[in-house]
Amino acid sequence: MERYDVAIIGLGPAGATLARLLDKKLRVIALDKKRESGDDGFKKPCGGLLAPDAQRAFIRFGLNLPTSVIANPQIFSVKTLDTQTGISRNYQRSYININRHAFDLWMKSLVPNHVDVHHDTLCKRIEQTDDGYCITFTEGGKEKRIFTRYLVGADGANSMVRRFLYPNHEIRRYQAIQQWFEDRHPVPFYSCLFDNEVTDCYSWSISKDGHFIFGGAFPMKEGKARYDLLKERLVPHGFTFGDALKSEKCTVLCPSRWQDFVCGQNNAFLIGEAAGFISASSLEGISYALDSAELLSQILNRGGTSLNQAYFKSTFRLRVKLLSKIVKARILTTPWLRKLIMKSGISHIKQTSQMSVR
Question: Domain FAD-binding spans what residues (predicted)?
Answer without folding.
Answer: 4-163
